[in-house]
Structures are given as C-alpha cells and as structure tokens.
Amino acid sequence: MNYLLISGVLAVLGLVMFSSAAVAKEETAIFGGGCFWCMEPPFEQLDGVIEVVAGYTGGTEEDADYKKVSAGRTDHYEAVRVIYDPEKVSYKELVETFWRQIDPTDDGGQFADRGEHYKTAIFYSTEEQRAVAEMSKKELDESKIFDRPVVTPVVPAKPFYLAEEYHQDYYLKNVQHYSRYKKGSGRQPFIDRVWGKETDKKGGNGYAKPSDQELKQKLTPMQYTVTQKDGTEPPFNNEYWNTKGKGIYVDVVSGEPLFSSLDKFDSGTGWPSFTRPLEPENIVEHKDRSLFMVRIEVRSKGADSHLGHVFEDGPPPTNLRYCINSAALRFVDVDNFEQEGYEDYLDLFK
User: Fold this and answer.
1) Is 323 a known active-site residue?
2) Quick check: is 38 catalytic?
3) 225-349 has which fold?
4) What would the pLDDT profile of 3-32 be if each residue is shown by its tens digit?
5) How far apart are CA 273 and CA 284, in angstroms?
6) Which of 121, 323, 328, 332 is catalytic?
7) What is the reported pTM?
8) Residue of 30, 35, 64, 332 marked active site
9) What pairs with residue 109 in β-bridges?
10) Which CATH number fits domain 25-195: 1.10.260.40, 3.30.1060.10, 2.30.30.140, 3.30.70.330?
C-alpha cells in the first residue's frame, strides 16, 4: 500500500512538474504596429509562435473596444500579443520581424492610418526584453536604412484587451479587402521598397489559401465538407435558407463578396437562392457531370470554395437561380459593413 501511495504521489508530482515545464516554455511579446490586421500574419508564420491575437494596450483606461479606441476616447494602441516558445524562436527574432512590418520613423501613426492608436511601440514584459528591444532599435537606427531617426518607443507592458472576434485573423476572413487595404494604405509598397518583396505564406505580398489543416480548424465540419469536398448541406436545415436581413454574403473561407440580400429570393428549395452574383468576377462556373447529370457548378474565384449550382429557372430580370449552400457563406449585416471593411457596398442599401 505504501509503495502504491508513494508511486501515486510521485506520478502526480511528475505531472505537475511536466505541466509547469510546458507552461514555462511559453512567453509573451506585445507589439503596436498600427493596424493590427497587418501585424498578425508576419508573426503567425514563424516557427515557434504559438498564438497571435489582436487587441488594445498601452492606455490608462480599464478595458477597451474598437469604437472607443478608433474614436480616440482612450489612449490605447492597436497591438498584437504573441505567445511563443523561446526555445524555438527568440525575442530578438520577433523584434526584427516587427521592424520589417512598420515605418519606425513615423510618430504620427502608420501609413494612411493617422492618430494615437495607430502609433508604434514595443511593450516589454521583462528587463531582458527591454534590453533586447533597445539594442535592436539602436542597431536599426545606426544602420541608416532610414533617412530619419527611429522613433518607436520601448515601453513597459500594460494590460492587454482582446479585440473583437471579427478582427482576429482578419487576413483569412476577408482576404480581398485585407489585400487591398495593405496595398492601398501604403504599408505593402513601403515594405517592398525598404525590405524587398515579401514572401510570407499568409497574406504578405498577396494571399495564399490556408492549408487543409488550417481550414479544418477554421471551418465547421459542414463548412469544410461543402467548400472543400464539394458537399451539399440538407435543404431547410441550414443557416440562411430563410433569412431576410439586409447585407451581403461573403465566402466563408476568404471573405470575398459573393451575393447581396437585394438579389435573394425564396425559391422553395430550402437553400439560399439569388438571381445574380454581387461581384461576377468573384464567381467561377464549371460543368458538373456528377450524379448522372450535367449541371453548372459555382465556385468562388479567390478561395476556390464550392458554393453550389446555377440554374436557368429563376425569376426576372436574370431568370437565373444561384442555388448556394449556406455553409459556404458568411452573412455581413449592413450595419457592420464599415467595421468589417465592406463600406464600398453601403450605397446599395440607401
């Protein structure tokens, strides 16, 4: 009995020690680099990075959200929190990655985004991090890569508040808008000019479709089956077959705008149906000879998601019926267009 008791205690202690060691391998780094949409991809592709999340930090107010921060009602920065394994990637590597995503000589914001919350900063959590960041900043300044002084401050970390869910991994959820924004804001041209063309896998110089493993994590089983395996969801038992809200329907993988509620109608089939695409260039059609028939399959151009089929039995003015799986779509309400980057479509609903 005593032997069994001792063995049990040792096993528990071993588990605790193992868990503590595993936790000890995780460290945190926080960077403010302007728009946090653009700061997640560079860190997420690094081997040894466990998690990257967008949020707000550096301010004096307790808690923060996008409306308050963007309106200047708090003094928080937009920032990213990086959880990493220091045995696989060093803090110095993270700092160097940070420098290559920003203009460290700009003290008024970043690129087209101006204001306090778009300023840059390195938020250190330990004295070691401070020393590494300060030395890296000094080396960058002395390199004369820039013709102006490096002004990004290195400051103590403050409480970090998670940003809203729609901001997390924005580059994967809204591919086209993210790519246009990164280029149009001036960030991408600046990075290309100073550091050369980016080659990152996820949203750097363009967009690469997520890996199959990433898609399985991002999508529900039904969404994965429909979009990646050309599946079909059950009629009358799906999310959007009978919805009537005002907004647009985007690709669940990439965020490409596909259809509008203005073109949605009740086809009686049990699947969401539309008379035409919102953006025809985002739709690709193929002949589908499965199930012993010939149909026209509809796929998204950017993500190559299977969406459904199009038939010539719809109502005027097109006489078309785009019969689409709900699982291939994500609905964006008109009230959320601006915060999700679809403000170009607001005029359609006025």
Assistant:
1) yes
2) no
3) 2.170.150
4) 455 455 455 555 544 444 445 589 999 999
5) 17
6) 323
7) 0.60
8) 35
9) 114
10) 3.30.1060.10
